User: Fold this.
Amino acid sequence: MNKKELDREEAVELRKKGKSVGEIANLLHISKSSASIWVRHVELTDDQKTKLSEQNPFNSGHSIEIRKRRNDAIKKSWENKRMNFQQMGEQDAAKGNHLHMQGCMLYWGEGTKRRNACIMINTDPDLLKHFIRFLIECYDISPNDIKFVVKSFKDHNISSEDTALYWSDTLGLPLSSLTRIDMDWDKKDVKKKKNVHKYGLCQVYVCRTDIVQRIFGAIKYYAGIQNLDKWIG
Assistant:
């Protein structure tokens, strides 16, 4: 039996005695990854699991408090960043650009209220085109960075390829910006609605915290709102 086989057997015996993977690695002078692989089939008793958990420094009260402070600091840092972006948005709004005002008010009424992504969902291609123009001209977003998702009908005679081409051509976005197309929307789900677009619904989005927070800040300026927390998810 070679040394590796002996070490493996010894690792298993140590594990059965309730030793941690780290302890086994140190005692046998092997890597933790090897020790973990060798002993992963060994079932520990409830008492052994409890003892190992108590020995884990990450489960100590001191460590939990450190992690809590670190998480609170990260949360506070992102809150400050969002507030700074919103202040930039208020400065954007003060410039009096009509397209900017239109886009922000459109987003207030029709956009999703996510913290880290700018998302507009609609069946109206003209509305979506105007919103894309707003993103490109007011925030210097490249069309290649604007993504879209399509949800269309499963019971019509338009193929997924034609649906994708329609939205790509209509919105002026490359087909490479299409991230998903779902052809499973049942017409009966929208039969009570009039003027439903035959190519379904399109979601246009940009995953940029700075952009959506600047839009929120501009909305605060235009509408005289002090606190957006009640409707930002």
